[in-house]
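One example copied in:
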Amino acid sequence: MTDRDIAQQGAGTTLDFDPAKLRAKYREERAKRLRGDGAQQYSKLEGDFAGLKADPYVEPGFTREPIADTVDAVIIGGGFGGILTGAQLRRNGVEKIRIIERGGDIGGTWYWNRYPGAACDVESYIYLPLLEEIGGLPPRKYATAPEIWEHTKKIAHRFDLYELALFQTSVTEAVWDSESETYTVRTDRGDEIRTRYLITATGSLSEPKLPGIAGIDKFEGHMIHTSRWDYDYTGGDQGGSLSKLADKRVAIIGTGATAVQVVPHLAESSKHLTVFQRTPSSIHVRADRPTDEEWFRNLPEGWQRARMENFTKAFSGVDVDVDLVNDSWTQSYFDAARAAAEGDVAPHQLANYMKMEDARARIDQVVERPETAEMLKPWYNFFCKRPCFHDGYLDVFNRENTTLVDTDGRGVESIDETGLWFGGVHYEVDCIVFATGFEVGTSSGSRTGFVLHGRDGVTLGEHWENGFRSLHGLAVHNFPNYFIINSLSQAGLTANFAHMLSVEAEQVGYIIGAAIEGSVKTVEVTADAEEAWVQEIISVATDNEIGAQNTAFQEECTPGYYNNEGQPFLRAIQNGPYGLGAVAYIQVLDDWREAGTLEGLSLTPAPVAVEAR
């Protein structure tokens, strides 16, 4: 689409902005942020920084005797993906299920992320999986991190997933043995566990990262990564009141979804807060409110699944009769549909511009200093970066004790013993908070921390040397009885990760249940089926009109983990989600199960016992 096309879209429409100029502005801002090193600009929390990754929520010095036994299934990861898969395996007849989790308890993201203000930005009624079955009344539309963590534990208890769980334990290696047709899983505790089925549910955003800033290792003050909050240093709790920061000068690097939640608490509690911004987030209305108990208790049977599906459809731009959730995630698409129906605005892109214009106008309304307001304005399309929803973040920048340092897309230049440098100015601080997120797009071994060996000793990293390969993002050729719960690579993408994890867990549970019912010993994706799905992923992203539009959209986006830091080349497309969207992906799985043939899977029957005569 040309600039002229965009300008013509607005013909006959009353607009207070020029779409062509706005697009040019987006391109200009994107160009500032492109870097040759892409995702390599970040570094791991290891060596001198290993302490930032340590679990601050357990007593140090934990030991136990190694375990050597055999189970039916090992699930690596105890977050939503792991426990939802465990629940589905239990429903499909799997008895001995062992979850291995490096944290001190079930919870995954919601075990680790205990920074002040941590909460979900997807409504609790659709984000808390199995809510209708497990029970409980979410007190508010948006659940806080402690509430979500408690819900994960309820699921684990309901399906007896604590019984064999190993906590404070990291897998180091998993090896397929063709003779016994089992995996041997080894851990840093000396465990050696044999299992028929192996599932990795280690999360798409689980390995914290640091920015590769010159001199970062020189800083002599205190450092915190938001994924491992240090309340011993800050005082307070997840509700805030960080009393030990009253005499501290604090800097925070990163202005994404985590920072948007934590910054108000840092500003309220610290002597002075300096926020270093490379790219501003788009801040939309959250409008949190208490749950209407009468409404909640009178919801009809099956309401949660219907509500989840309704949200995912509306979020994906599929027309629905009623937007049940009706929040800032879904309203942009309804605005587009209404505008098109009225004939005064062209559909998708123009509606996107209008939504982001509203976000920028809100900044002008809230932020008192015009110069600061301009720095906070996001110049990119809605969903180029994960949108943020908060009703107090923008107000922080009216405080006298808060300074915004906009780096105009470049980031902090260097760090020394006492502070940070940008633009020739030194900012002396006592503490640096890194809200810099997690690894995305790195090797499987880098993100999971262990090596997986399949048939003939081939490693998963070797199999994926030229990009992610799978059937439906869930199973891999040469790795029998192995499944991945990931929600991103070659699967559907929706803002409600819990919904997609539920969908994937249901599919894996179905396959394993069918294997058990049919006395099948091994299930493995065929090479042809894997290649066909890889080609499907690539073709719908490049040849199909909808997929090509999505790819073009990402190519124009400001750099971030959604588009491989602004470099959405073919391998990144292959590693990415299903280009036709979450609704189409779910339909693919539904149709596959409905066929009942386990198409694309090679099945090895269990040997039939012969009675002695």
User: Anything to note?
Assistant: The longest helix spans residues 497-517. The chain is about 35% helix and 15% strand. Residues 312 and 611 are 53 Å apart (CA to CA). Confidence is low (pLDDT under 50) at residues 1-13.
